[in-house]
Amino acid sequence: MSNVSFIRALEPSGVLLPYFTALVPAGFPSPALDHMEHKLSLDELLDLHAPHIYVVRVAGDSMTGVGIFDGDYLIVSRGITAKPGDIVVACVNGEVFVKRLCNEQGQWLLRSENPRFAPRYILEGDELLIWGVVTNSLRNHRQHA
């Protein structure tokens, strides 16, 4: 069962948003937040300039240990060579997963970041395709949206 839904490839938007360089406290607001310092491009912040970037939406809770939750959107790059330790979109025998790519003593596996899920070892005869490396995640924090 797949745990990602493919949305589409991203294209640069060119939209610049106000950016406040003051750190935002999680307690009381700072008066310094009234001072906008410059504009920020989400294209630059998320490295969306390349045509090798696409978006997927996560289904399930196997990656909650790294802050990836059900319904989150992931920015995925096909232009990065996956290395052990990377979070990847992987296809094993036609089944698509978001997992951490690991190599333990020469054995490749896809590890969940939730102890309730066992790792998926890549066995002889399995077809493993890495469809991209996850670079960022996006979450909607409005509960009623």
From TrEMBL:
Residues 22-134 form the Peptidase S24/S26A/S26B/S26C domain. GO terms for molecular function: DNA binding; hydrolase activity. It comes from the Bacteria. Keywords: Autocatalytic cleavage, DNA damage, DNA repair, Hydrolase, SOS response. It comes from Atopomonas hussainii. The keyword Cytoplasm does not apply. The lineage of its organism: Bacteria, Pseudomonadati, Pseudomonadota, Gammaproteobacteria, Pseudomonadales. This is DNA polymerase V. Transmembrane segments: none annotated. GO terms for biological process: DNA repair; regulation of DNA-templated transcription; SOS response.
